[in-house]
């Protein structure tokens, strides 16, 4: 598990990029916490820099939208899903389990 940040440091509607061998973004949306591969599957852009609306993040480069719950895009130009990761909140701290990649078929 990777420690992301305290809950108090990630307000609703915000995202945080975690560096690592595979960059991961953590989002606080719709009252929950979600983690996805940070890089848009269409082109090399950070999803943490995108716009969050409901349970979706819009890529800042070409406006592809990804479902934070599943990683599946719901519009072009992205056609491929991004991986999601389990998020755990314990003692007021957000953790991401990057060992468990949840690929979408």
TrEMBL record:
Pfam families: Rieske. Keywords: 2Fe-2S, Dioxygenase, Iron, Iron-sulfur, Metal-binding, Oxidoreductase. It is an enzyme of class 1 (oxidoreductase). CDD domains: Rieske_RO_ferredoxin. Residues 2-96 form the Rieske domain. Its EC number is 1.14.12.19. The keyword Metal-binding applies. Gene3D superfamilies: Rieske [2Fe-2S] iron-sulphur domain. InterPro entries: Rieske_2Fe-2S, Rieske_2Fe-2S_sf. GO terms for molecular function: 3-phenylpropionate dioxygenase activity. The keyword Transmembrane does not apply. NCBIfam families: PRK09965.1 (NF007422). This is Bifunctional 3-phenylpropionate/cinnamic acid dioxygenase ferredoxin subunit. It comes from Amycolatopsis speibonae.
